[in-house]
Design goal:
The protein folds into 3 domains: about 170 residues, Immunoglobulin-like, CATH 2.60.40.10; about 230 residues, Rossmann fold; about 40 residues, no CATH class. Helix content is about 40%, strand content about 25%. The protein is built from 12 helices and 21 strands. InterPro entries: DUF58.
């Protein structure tokens, strides 16, 4: 039964049969062709038998494995990013093999076009590389790698199946996190939109007294240390060196309510907030600050206290992986109560949420003002990019004019929200989803440079 289940018919065989049928029909009109057609039919049947023998013979392959394939998938996939996958092929036949590879990818991708074709010489290996972009966190189940092998005759196909079933978890965008980490280590964050922030003044955390170097601020010269050094080792200016304030608590507050369910380029606003929180937490730890996470919706979700210990990023990654959007309105009163109870030290609070109207923001404003009294609060919400595209289009008729007017009203209301929050000392970021990570990192570095945290 195994050869029968693995046997498939190639299109060339169907074309051959159709040609033979037409020749038999023609032979009824021209009987002189009938003997030639019978010979062609016998030859065609012999070729089918030879093709079957070439594909299914096992004398040279005791294990019956005349072809081998293997799919290489990362242990976990990065949400919202292009993840590389590789299929390795090895032809163990003694003839040139033409292969068709169908990879059974998880149903979440809703793709039916993962078909690859290749030509392999005897005992040759090849690698097929392609990419997948998941848009939801969770477990993804890969099926089999189906390889259909054709001999040089190309009449039949033999199917091989490899990698039967594999579960892979899709985590928040750790590829984006690594990209920012690498660029930060090599001083190239400007490539992803992070601006160079000029430091305003000095922090008050003294680090050391060191010799003056060209470019140092002359206002930091320590004249007493300079005079002592001049007496003992010759004239040399000494300056006071200061370092950034360290170990400041930085919390990402992630709203999981219904306002974060809106989609953009396949991802929800919640997923954008989760990806940005992961990157920002990693940057904060690199800056020697402490990073923590709190999630909330109609009730408080999970709270990870801000720490700078080994393994903190892994804890943050696992916490963010499990978050799901809820479809109820978020309870800011519970958020304020939880923060007042569990976060006693003044901290930087980055609130990822979304306000569509002024009235929606004003309902939560009393709780935001109370948070801003005890902490440095940064409210991050989203610009409606579809609305912006509608506004930028020229009006062509009366209906379009009406739509543009309504769109401009909502867009203006978003700007009003920014001004209203600013009146109470609340920092804000109004950003498009695709620019969220870069804008959030920019604001964090700006606040740190200004000594506000």
């Amino acid at each position: 039964m195994i050869p029968i289940r693995a046997l498939f018919v190639a299109s060339r065989l169907w074309f051959g049969l159709i040609t033979l049928v037409l020749l038999f029909v023609a032979a009824y009109a021209f009987p002189i062709l009938f003997p030639l057609v019978k010979v062609a039919f016998v030859v065609f049947m012999v070729l089918i038998g030879v093709d079957f023998w070439l594909l299914f013979r096992t004398t040279n392959y005791p294990s019956g494995s005349a072809f081998f394939a293997r799919r290489e998938v990362p242990e976990r996939l990065s949400n919202g990013d292009e993840n590389p996958l590789t299929i390795y092929l090895e032809n163990r036949y003694s003839f040139n093999a033409r292969v068709e590879v169908i990879d059974e990818i998880p149903f979440q991708f809703q793709r039916r076009d993962v078909l690859f074709q290749a030509q392999l010489k005897p005992h040759e290996t090849q690698a097929i590389r392609y990419e997948l972009r998941p848009t939801r966190r969770g477990e993804y189940s890969f099926g089999a790698v189906n390889v259909f092998v054709l001999s040089p005759l190309g009449l039949l196909k033999r199917r091989y199946q490899f990698e039967q079933g594999k579960l892979v978890a899709v985590y928040p965008s750790f590829l984006q996190m690594r990209q920012f980490e690498l660029l930060a280590a090599t001083n190239r964050l400007t490539e992803v939109g992070v601006k160079r922030i000029r430091r305003i003044g000095h922090s008050m955390e003294f680090e050391q007294v060191r010799p003056y170097s060209t470019g140092d601020d002359v206002r930091t010269i320590n004249w007493k240390a300079t005079s002592r050094r001049s007496d003992s080792q010759g004239a040399s200016l000494m300056i006071n060196a200061f370092q950034d304030e360290r170990s400041q608590p930085v919390y990402c507050l992630i709203d999981k309510g219904r306002v974060m369910q809106s989609p953009f380029e396949g991802l929800t606003l919640l997923d954008y907030a989760i990806n940005a929180s992961l990157v920002l937490s990693n940057i904060a730890l690199m800056k020697q600050d402490r990073a923590g996470v709190l999630t909330f919706s109609d009730h408080i979700g999970q709270l990870l206290p801000a720490e700078r210990r080994t393994g903190q990023m892994l804890k943050i990654l696992e916490l963010l992986y499990r978050q799901k959007t809820r479809f109820l309105e978020s309870d800011y009163e519970s958020l304020y109560t939880s923060i007042r109870t569990h976060i006693r030290q003044r901290s930087l609070l980055l609130l990822f949420t979304n306000f569509e109207t002024m009235s929606g923001m004003q309902r939560q404003l009393p709780y935001l003002r109370r948070l801003a009294k005890d902490h440095l609060l940064l409210v991050i919400f989203f610009e409606n990019t579809e609305l912006r595209a509608l506004i930028d289009q020229p009006a062509t008729d009366t209906e379009h004019v009406y739509m543009k007017t309504i769109g401009e009203k909502f867009s203006f209301e978003k700007k009003q929200i920014v001004k209203e929050l600013g009146q109470y000392g609340i920092q804000t970021i109004l950003t498009a989803p695709q620019n969220l990570t870069a804008n959030t990192v920019n604001k964090y570095l700006e606040l740190k440079a200004r000594g506000m945290i």
